[in-house]
Write a structure and sequence with these properties.
The protein has 53 residues and is of the alpha+beta class. The protein is built from two helices and three strands, in the order αββαβ. It has one domain. It binds zinc ion.
């Protein structure tokens, strides 16, 4: 089977999960790295990429 990197990118790129309340946040990768993104629910800046276990 062939994997589709494009599909992974579409599903997971720029999607982050709040470490506090597990809310998914779609935002720009660079903004997360620059710590400009806060969770809209709990205002935490502790985000992780969605794929990481
Ligand atoms: Zn949160």
């Amino acid at each position: 089977m062939v994997k589709f990197p494009e599909a992974n990118v579409r599903l997971y790129k720029n999607v982050f999960v709040c470490r506090n309340c597990k809310t998914k946040i779609r935002t720009d990768n660079m903004k997360v790295l620059a710590k400009k993104v806060k969770c809209r629910k709990c205002n935490s800046k502790a985000l992780r990429p969605v794929r990481k276990k």
